[in-house]
Amino acid sequence: MADAALTCAACHGPLCAPILTLPCGNSLHRACVLAPPACAPPPLNRLLICPFAGCAWRAHPHPLTIAHAGADTVLGDALAAGSDVEVADALECALCLHLMQDPVTLFPCGHSACRGCLVATFTAPPPTLCGGGGEVAGPACFLCRAPVLVPGGNSCTAGAYYARVPANRALTALIARVQPATAPPPADESDGDANVPIFACTLVLPGMPCRLHVYEPRYRLMIRRVCSQRANRDFGMCAPRSDGTVAVGDVGTLVQVQAVQWLADGRALVETVGAAPFRIVEKRCVDGYCVARIERVRDDPDECVKLDDAVPADVSPCSGPCSTVRDAICGASRMLERFLGRLAGAQRAQFVEQFGAMPCDPRAFTWWLAGVLPVDAARRARLLTDASPKSRFATVLEWCRPR
């Protein structure tokens, strides 16, 4: 029995070129696709009713007339190939030059690529139109530069749209045939702690927001790769040495990308938040920036700070011979309120935007207070190496005491 993914839904015959692949990931003979009647009123004259049962769209945007829709040439070449080797060659991704993984086909031009590679092209800074005075072009195909289907035609949402659009079912079926089922999935070396991109910029503490203006080409490339290749969209932040570099043994913090705004000239405004401290074990240079193998500084699993734990009076910011962790947090909160009360409204808003709201969880409170207090980077770096939550809490409270 023929694979349903390799069968035309309209004529029920085996697929052969020319083929049209729809945004739902299903393919059919181009000749079997009927254009809407010329007399159909809008918006029906711009829709293509999907002939595939179970299609989530049911109707697709119609590219003016069917003559403007590009054929799926990759699928056509793969179906016409005579051997598995030729099929594999036809299924090579034009971006990474490997056998496609999770293939996605652009509509209406019909060109295909790995989902990860395709999303990376839309994550890159958008091109500008020549002579357009900085006007930003809409999303375009990586190969032919033809406009591609994106809801609203917005370049900013193209990456998110193609990250979730259904894969090309026919190409997926062919890839499964030529790729042995016993073969393990290709390892993504950009993920994990063995290949962490390092941004030598400043020291960030866990939980602390950090906004970056990325303008150097090497770091713009790094941000694009982080957003498209690393599952957690994270990278390392370290304070640079006097020569602007980092070294083995240096400490830093993994930060996660929350949002990226690409500007027309290629610069990026990146919002991140600190996640976990680490030490650099090995490092190397990739395309001008540092990539390191890191060792995370993990908290002692047998030790935690609870709100009802007692705090010695000599490290407590509260009055009284002894207090609990809850009392210490409340005392710090009152100190913060007095400090903010002396600031103008705009300055208070800027403080909250920079540091975030004060958390009540003892572990998060420790890092937050360490970021707020005016202490030097060396003391903060030593705090990152401390795996004892109780020791960190006591250290930060000690910083609060008047000298």
What does this 3D model show about the protein?
The protein is of the alpha+beta class and 403 residues long. It has 3 domains: 4-178, Zinc/RING finger domain, C3HC4 (zinc finger) (Herpes Virus-1, 2-Layer Sandwich), CATH 3.30.40; 196-296, Archaeosine Trna-guanine Transglycosylase, Chain: A, domain 4; 310-400. Helices cover 29% and strands 20% of the residues. It has helices at 73-80, 84-90, 115-123, 155-164, 169-178, 217-229, 325-341, 345-355, 362-372, 377-384, 389-400; strands spanning 19-21, 27-29, 47-49, 59-61, 103-105, 112-114, 196-200, 209-214, 234-238, 251-262, 268-286, 289-296, 310-312, 322-324. The radius of gyration is 28 Å and the shape is elongated. Residues 127-136 and 181-191 have low confidence and may be disordered.
